[in-house]
Amino acid sequence: MRDAAAQSIAPVLLDWYDRHARILPWRVPPGCAERPDPYRIWLSEVMLQQTTVAAVTEYFHRFTARWPTVEALAAAEDADVMAEWAGLGYYARARNLLKCARAVAARGGFPRDRAGLQALPGIGPYTSAAIAAIAFDQPETVVDGNVERVMARLFDEHMPLPAAKPVLTELAAELTPAQRPGDYAQAVMDLGATICTPRSPACGICPLMAVCAARATGTAASLPRKSPKPTKPVRLGIAYLGQRIDGAWLMERRPDRGLLGGMLGWPGSDWRENSPTEAPPVDALWHDVPGEVRHTFTHFHLRLALRVARLPMDAPGTYVAPQSFDPRALATVMRKAHALGADYLKTLEAP
Description:
Layout: H1 2-20, H2 38-48, H3 53-66, H4 70-74, H5 78-85, H6 92-107, H7 114-118, H8 125-136, H9 145-154, H10 165-175, H11 181-194, H12 213-217, E1 234-244, E2 249-250, E3 252-253, E4 264-265, E5 287-288, E6 293-296, E7 301-311, E8 319-320, H13 332-345
Parallel strand pairs: 1-7
Antiparallel strand pairs: 2-8, 3-4, 5-7, 6-7
Helix pairs in contact: 1-11, 2-3, 2-8, 8-11, 9-10, 9-11
C-alpha cells in the first residue's frame, strides 16, 4: 500500500484541498498569488497549541489588529500581551511569544528554514516544520493530532499513542511531496479536522477512501489507539479576594516561571495535595465564600477555596484601581475566582 499511497495521495489530497480548504484568518487560500505571512502563520501555530481553531480565532483577530507585525509585537509591553492572552491558557506560550518576536525583530525577519526557526525561543519541531512548510513552502513534514489520526487510519497502524508518534511521523514523511508542501500540510490537517474526525469519520466522502487501509479492514473509527492516561491528582489551594473601600483590588503578579507565570492574579496559598495553611496576605476580617472554584490544568485538577474581605484604605499591598481592573484580562482560574468571590463580597458591609 505504501508505494501506491506515496504516488497517489498527494495529488488527490491537493485537488480536494483546492476545492474544500477551510477559510481561516491566518491562511492564504490555495491558488492565491499572495505568499503567506510568516508572522501570521507563526502566531496562529503558537495559539493553536493545545487549543482549538474555534477558541483561537477571536484571539488571533485581536492580536493582529493590535500588533499587525512581528515588530509591533516585539515592542509591546509584557503586561499588555499577557492580558490579551488571558483565557488561552498555557501561559508559557505567551512569554515565549514575546521572546521570539523580539528575537525575530532583532534579526530582521523570520528564518526561512526549519533549523533556523527552531533556534528561536519557544519554537519546537512541530512549529518550525509548520512555518517552514506553510510560510516558505519548504518540503517539511508537519505532524499534529489531525495528521497522526489520518496516518494511523491510512496505514491501519494499531500501535497506541504516544509510542506510535515516531512511526506515524515517518509515515507522514513518506507522503510529503516536494511540490506545494505547505498546501499539502494544510490539506492533511483539514482532512483530519473535517472528514477523518476522531469520532464518526465520514469515510464515504473521504478523497482517500480508495487507499485507506483502516477503511478496508473496518477499523477506522477505533484508530488511533491510545494508551490509558494516568489519573490526574487533585490539588488544593486558597485565594484571597480583598477589595479596598475605594474599589481597588488587592492583587499580585505571579513569578515568571511556573503555572500562570507573569500573570496578574489573587494572592493565595501554594497549590498542593494536602490542605493549605498559609496566612492571609493582610490582616483583615476574611470571610469564607460558600462553594469553591474548580479548574483543570494539564497535569492536575485544582480545587480553590475563596476568602473575601473589605479592606481599609491603609491596608498594605499592591492594588489595581477599579477603572484599571478588567476580569477578562485574568487567567481563567482567576476569572472564575472573581466571579464567585465578587458576588459574595457585595453582601458584606464596608469597614
